[in-house]
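Lab notebook, entry 382. We have the chain sequence and a SMILES string for magnesium ion, and the next step in the workflow is to get a structural model of the bound complex before anyone spends time on docking refinements. Request logged below.

Task: model protein plus magnesium ion, output C-alpha cells.
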Amino acid sequence: MPIELMPPKLLSPAISQWIALGVRALSRAIEIKNPPMIGLDIGSSSIKMVVLEKKGPREFQLERYVIEPLPEGAVTEGNINELSIVSDRIKRAYQRLGSGLKSVAIALPFSDVITKRTLFSNILKEEQIEQQIPLEVGQYIPFPLEESNFDFQVLGPSRDSPEDVDVMIAAARREKLEDRVAAVEAAGLKALVVDVDLFALQSIYALTKPIDEKTNWGEVENIALVKVGAWRMSIHIIREGFSIYQREQPFGGAQLTQEIQSYFELPEAKAESAKRDGTLPESYVNKILMPFLQNLGEEVARSIQYFYSTSEYNQVHSIVLVGGCAALAQAASVVQTQTMIPTSVAKVFNALTVSDKVPVHTLNRDASSLFVACGLALRGFD
Ligand SMILES: Nc1ncnc2c1ncn2[C@@H]1O[C@H](COP(=O)(O)OP(=O)(O)OP(=O)(O)O)[C@@H](O)[C@H]1O
Ligand SMILES: [Mg+2]
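Result returned:
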C-alpha cells in the first residue's frame, strides 16, 4: 500500500505534534520549541501540578506545585472513570496553583502505551523515517491503526550498529488519550504534550546524573527506578539514559491505608492522614508497615529476577524509589535488605532547586509524589 494512503500521524488537533519520548535528543530531532507548561499528573489518588522555571542548560527550579486529592474510583489503573469529577479537581488544582500558564503536559500510564525501539538507516532524513512509521506501528499494535495515536523520536546514532539510528516508537489507543484531553479541556486548560509517565520520570531522574558531553550517554549501569503510588507499582530499568525494561503491577499505598483502617478501626480519611503524618500507635510499624514493606521488597526482587531472565544482564547496580510510598520510613532499607541491592529514595531536590515560595516542610512530605509531574513540566523547555 502506498505510504500516502496511510492515516495521518497522531493525536487530536488540540495536542502537539508528538508524544515526547525519552530523555535526550528531542530538541536535536525536532526543532520546535514548546512554550512553558504545567506538568499535570493525573494519578489514582490525586492530581499533581508542577511549574518549573529554567535557570540554566540543565538547571531548573520548582516554582509552584499542588496536590489535589481525588475521590476513590474516579481514576483507576490509569483510566478516568469519572470525567466530570476529574476535570473539576483539575480546575480546583489550577486555581490553587495560581499560575498564569494555560498549557499542560500530561502523561499516559506506561501500561497503556506500546513502545518499540527500532533501527533505521542513518542515511534517511527525519521525514523519510516519518513516512515509514505507520508501517512499523501497524506491525505490532493489537488494534487498528485508525484507532491509535502514535509518534516516534530519533534517539541518536546506534551504538551497536554504526550505520543506523535508534528510533523510539510509541503508540496508544486513541480513546485512552481522548479521555485525558477531555478532562483537561473541560477544566479550561490546553493539553499540548502527551508523554508516557515512566519517560517523564526518567527525564527528571536524568537531571540528577551527569552525562557524557561527547556521547550524550548516561551512566553505564543498570538503575532500577521503582515507583510506588496508590494502586500501582512500576519498575523501570535504565541504562545509559535509556529505559531497557519495564514492568507494572497492582500494588500500592492504598492497600496499606486499608490495612490501617481495619487494624485500628479508623475511617479512611483518618487512616490516610495518620499514615502520612506518622501519628499512628507504635504497633503500626511491626504489625502493618513492616509486612507491607517486605511485600514491596519481594515484588521488587521478583521484578528484577524477571529482568535478569529476559535480558542479557545479571546485575542491577542500584534501586531508586519514587512515588508517594517512597516517603514511608524504612522503605529503602527494607527493599535493600530484601534485594541486596543498594537502595535510596529519590528526592526532587536532587534534580531541582526550590523557590523560596515553596514551603519546605510540606515539600519534604510530598517530594516523592511529584516526580512524574516535574518530568512533565520539563517538556515546556524542549
Ligand atoms: N508522606 C507520605 N507518607 C506515607 N505515604 C504517603 C506519603 N505521601 C503519599 N503517600 C502514599 O502514596 C500513595 C500516593 O502516591 P502517588 O501520589 O505517587 O500515587 P498516585 O499517582 O495517586 O497513584 P498511581 O500512580 O498509583 O496511579 C498513597 O497511598 C499515599 O497514602
Ligand atoms: Mg502516579
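Notes for the group: The domain at 3-208+352-381 is CATH 3.30.420.40 (Nucleotidyltransferase; domain 5). Worth checking against the assay data. Confidence is low (pLDDT under 50) at residues 1-31.
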